[in-house]
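Task: sequence design from structure.
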């Protein structure tokens, strides 16, 4: 887990809590989020509560680390999530990652979203950048990737502003962005 306070521009990253379930339902109903992210078929409050209840299990199994992007009032304004290629049932190569990233050590795939009240202030870029620095340092990852639909201009900008560079195109047409730990060191 990243240290408390990791975030950017007045945000913090923290684990999901029961009280965040309404914000998750809001995200699952937000056309801007759902245009680019797969959500569950069941997008009800009980489904959000079940998803949040499974947070620690996914984390301890090494499948995902989904964190709330919280504003200064500690309210959920978005999420940044890390998954491993194994969580998707695919290899890094199948997800469009460069061969060297797949063989150089731990590789993670990042995703993010913001609710309307969090958009337009650079929160995603600063949070993704800070989380990525931690993941490539103390988090022990050698490379991070993000697969982004070519029409999702906001997420492309987030990736670029957070230091990711385009490295190819995934089989499904998503643009693949990559950020690697510097040779011989930390991010």
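Answer:
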């Amino acid at each position: 887990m990243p240290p408390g306070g990791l975030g950017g521009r007045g945000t913090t990253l923290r684990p999901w809590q029961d009280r965040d379930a309404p914000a998750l339902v809001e995200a699952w109903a937000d056309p801007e989020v759902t245009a680019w992210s797969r959500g569950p078929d069941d997008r009800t409050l009980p489904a959000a509560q079940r998803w949040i209840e499974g947070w620690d299990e996914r984390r301890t199994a090494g499948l995902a680390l989904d964190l709330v992007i919280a504003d200064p009032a500690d309210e959920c304004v978005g999420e940044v999530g890390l998954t491993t290629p194994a969580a998707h049932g695919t290899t890094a190569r199948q997800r469009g990652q460069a061969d060297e990233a797949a063989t150089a050590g731990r590789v993670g795939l990042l995703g993010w979203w913001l609710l309307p009240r969090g958009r337009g202030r650079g929160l995603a870029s600063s949070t993704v950048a800070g989380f990525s620095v931690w993941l490539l340092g103390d988090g022990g990852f050698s490379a991070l990737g993000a697969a982004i639909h070519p029409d999702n201009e906001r997420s492309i900008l987030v990736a670029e502003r957070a230091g990711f560079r385009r490295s190819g195109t995934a089989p499904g047409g998503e643009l693949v962005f990559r950020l690697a730990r510097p040779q011989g060191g930390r991010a």
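Residues 123-136 form the longest helix (14 residues).
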